[in-house]
UniProtKB/TrEMBL annotation:
The gene is LOC101073570. Residues 93-118, 161-194 are annotated as: Disordered. Sequence-specific transcription factor which is part of a developmental regulatory system that provides cells with specific positional identities on the anterior-posterior axis. Belongs to the POU transcription factor family. It comes from the Eukaryota. The keyword Cytoplasm does not apply. Residues 188-265 form the POU-specific domain. This is POU domain protein. InterPro entries: HD, Homeobox_CS, Homeodomain-like_sf, Lambda_DNA-bd_dom_sf, POU, POU_dom, POU_domain_TF. Keywords: DNA-binding, Homeobox, Nucleus, Transcription, Transcription regulation.
Length: 347
DNA sequence: ATGCATGAGCC
DNA sequence: GCTCATGCATA
């Protein structure tokens, strides 16, 4: 049910692997699957294994799982256990410690679009994402359009750096709760799971307060112009907020989202301070609605004279107690409408 | 919010 | 073939 990404193997934290428990693929696989929400498959999974191996794998799984739960440094497990893990004991995502380079985020952006369901937050977004207003392609410039190739290249570079620290196989973990500066001079910081968790929570609350959707955030990231950081999908923002990303991914994303949040709130403060500046351009116009009776009158007039003179319009406006411009525009729209109707009728 | 897919780098 | 970050599509 939730975060268990079938693909994301939840790798055990290196530190948890004691030498004698050689993390064989089979065993970790077993553990992983055991955590999958598809118990029905479990039986088959080991069908070919010999009893002993199976038992051993299960035993190991139990041990490791317990270890995870209680191990204060276990990053992945932490999120869920601390938050709202329902039934799973294992974590959805990975974990081995990699160097987290912010660039890890560089998105992939397929030529896709962002969640259509989510609306854009006009003002704020416009300021944070200047491009979006331009044909709604902001994101695209930076992300979508570039799509695979370019992006892929980018990602590669990033991942490259990440993996360079043979961290995958080695055992250095990111979260040095405090003193664990595992990385020799690494500098990367304090991947304190709790901090991440609370940040994610605060992030969501503040985002909502700003009236910005997850998709908006993802798209707006590109406007931060942080080197190596493009936009992200709604999915990713959602996963960040729900802590369903890998620890490393969370760590990498945090500073970026933090930057966005600050910028967004700064812009909002600005708007509060001097709203005038933001008015003209993006102020929503009010749409007049003409009541039925008036509309009927207008239609009657239109039937007689689709192109009334200025004087005639003024007279009609006065009679119906509408603004002259409203009446004028109504006639314009009516003529257009009629044209469209004619067109669709013939074609 | 999340199941499934893709693609890069690694082994 | 595997891990991982990320996205698309959809419930």
């Amino acid at each position: 049910m939730m975060s268990m990404n079938s693909k994301q193997p939840f790798s055990m934290h290196p530190i948890l692997h004691e030498p004698k428990y050689t993390p064989l693929h089979s065993s970790s696989e077993a553990i992983r699957r055991a955590c999958l929400p598809t118990p029905s498959l479990q039986g088959n999974i080991f069908a070919g294994f010999d009893e002993t191996l199976l038992q051993r794998a299960e035993a190991l799984a139990a041990v490791d799982i317990v270890a995870q739960k209680s191990h204060p440094f276990k990053p992945d497990a932490t999120y869920h256990t601390m938050t709202s893990m329902t039934s799973m004991t294992c974590t959805p995502t990975s974990s081995s410690a990699h160097l987290h380079h912010p660039s890890v985020l560089t998105s992939h952006h397929h030529p896709g679009h962002h969640q259509p369901a989510q609306g854009l937050e006009g003002d704020l977004l416009d300021h944070l994402t200047p491009g979006i207003s331009l044909g709604g392609m902001t994101g695209s410039d930076v992300c979508s359009t570039a799509s695979h190739t370019a992006h892929a290249a980018h990602m590669s570079a990033i991942n490259h750096m990440q993996h360079h620290h043979h961290s995958q196989s080695m055992n250095m973990h990111p979260h040095g709760l405090g003193s664990h500066a595992s990385l020799g001079g690494g500098g990367d910081a304090e991947p304190d799971p709790r901090e991440l968790e609370s940040f994610a929570e605060r992030f969501k609350q503040r985002r909502i307060k700003l009236g910005v959707t997850q998709a908006d955030v993802g798209a707006a990231l590109a406007n931060l112009k942080i080197p190596g950081v493009g936009c992200l999908s709604q999915s990713t923002i959602c996963r960040f907020e729900s802590l369903t990303l890998s620890h490393n991914n969370m760590v990498a994303l945090k500073p970026i989202l933090e930057a966005w949040l600050e910028e967004a709130e700064r812009v909002q403060r600005e708007k509060m301070a001097k709203p005038e500046i933001f008015n003209g351009a993006d102020k929503k116009r009010k749409r007049t609605s003409i009541a039925a009776p008036e509309k009927r009158s207008l239609e009657a007039y239109f039937a007689v004279q689709p192109r009334p003179s200025s004087e005639k319009i003024a007279a009609i406006a006065e009679k119906l107690d509408l603004k002259k411009n409203v009446v004028r525009v109504w006639f314009c729209n009516q003529r257009q409408k009629q044209k469209r109707m004619k067109f669709s009728a013939t074609h």
